[in-house]
Amino acid sequence: MELKSDILSKLINTKTTGLVVSINDLRDKEFSGHKLNAEERFALSNFDKYRIKILNSHEDEAKFHNQYRQLQVIANLSDWREFLKDEFFK
Q: Are 24 and 82 in contact (CB under 8 A)?
């Protein structure tokens, strides 16, 4: 599944200016008792599905852990709106 690594590379290499609201920021917002709007919930759902798909595709433990760390970075630093795009599920 080369597409997955292409998407990961794109997200990791995306240049942003200023602070962004990340997937983990949305999780913190939700856990704090604030309601998420439909787009925010959709982005969280897409990220979770994508994360599971990525991690389940690895049989090699070292690759699994590398992808896990990359996904953690993405969840902390990428704009959550990136996960509204349907390229994650083509």
A: no
Q: What is the pTM of this model?
A: 0.77
**CA–CA gap between residue 41 and residue 58 (Å, rounded):** 27
Question: How do the pLDDT tens digits run along the chain, 90 residues long?
Answer: 444 556 666 666 666 566 889 999 999 999 999 999 999 999 999 999 999 999 999 889 998 999 999 999 999 988 999 999 876 655
The closest alpha carbon to 77, from 30, 12, 29, 26, belongs to 12
For the chain, the first-to-last Cα distance in angstroms comes to 11
The one-letter amino acid at 41: R
Helix 38-56 vs helix 2-13: crossing angle, to nearest 10: 130
Q: CA 75 to CA 2: how far, in whole Å? A: 20
Q: Residue 47 and residue 59: Cα distance in Å, rounded?
A: 21
